[in-house]
Amino acid sequence: MARRLLLFGSPGRPGSGNNRNHVGLVPFHASGMYRDIRGLPMGEKEMYGPSIKPEERTWAMIAHLGGIAGLIVGVGQLGWVVPLVLWFVYREKSSFVAFHALQQLLFQLACLAAFWIVFGVVTVLTFLVIGIFLWPLVALIPAVPFIWSIVAALKANVGEWYEYPVVGALARRYTLPV
């Protein structure tokens, strides 16, 4: 049987943009089965995570969106508050929520540290006139956690164990059983 990547299909077919139950482009087999990244058949249980309850997916999404709310309300400085609270509440109850909350917490703290380091360097370089041209970069740094958190929230809402680069592996080490 031929394998193909169905980019545009009929409404309701897997891989078509009209079916809201299927996220993204998924390799599609002629038999109608989804396949994972390795090309192995994948059923609905594997796609949506059978052990992850809908309320856990919602709280994991709130952990990511709470980081965004903290960025907006705290003028870029309080994105870590909601993930910290959710991590304390769910660290013993749900490994899925604890994982997403902890990695969002670590990601927000890393972005906050990067912002202040860049802010300090650009402030010093401003005295050398070079820094004047770098201030737009400082203004764009808060956009990174904002956009990335939206992506992570959407992935958490469908039950995916989405990982940020670097901090995702650290969060996995501290929240998931070995």
Structure description:
The two termini are 38 Å apart. The chain contains 7 helices and 4 strands. The chain has 2 domains: 1-48, no CATH class; 54-175, no CATH class. The protein has a two-stranded antiparallel ribbon. A two-stranded antiparallel sheet has the order 3-4. The radius of gyration is 20 Å and the shape is elongated. It has 178 residues and is mainly α. Helix 2 (54-73) runs antiparallel to helix 6 (143-157) and helix 4 packs antiparallel against helix 6 (143-157).
Topology, please?
Layout: E1 3-4, E2 28-29, E3 34-35, E4 41-42, H1 44-48, H2 54-73, H3 81-90, H4 95-126, H5 135-140, H6 143-157, H7 167-175
Antiparallel strand pairs: 1-2, 3-4
Helix pairs in contact: 2-3, 2-4, 2-6, 3-4, 4-6, 4-7
Essential attributes:
single chain, 178 residues, mainly alpha, two-stranded antiparallel sheet, 7 helices, 54% helix, elongated, disordered N terminus
Total number of strands: 4
Q: Tell me, rounded to a whole number, the average pLDDT.
A: 74
String of helices and strands? EEEEHHHHHHH
- Measure the end-to-end span: 38 Å
Number of continuous helical runs: 7
**Structural class based on helices, strands and sheet pairing:** mainly alpha
Q: Percent range for helical residues?
A: 40-55%
Shape: elongated
Main beta-sheet strand count, sense and barrel state: 2 strands, antiparallel
Report strand %.
Answer: under 5%
Rg = 20 Å
Question: Which residue ranges are poorly predicted, with pLDDT under 50 across at least 5 consecutive positions?
Answer: 1-13, 15-29, 44-49
Structural domain tally: 2
Task: Report strand order across the widest sheet.
Answer: 1-2
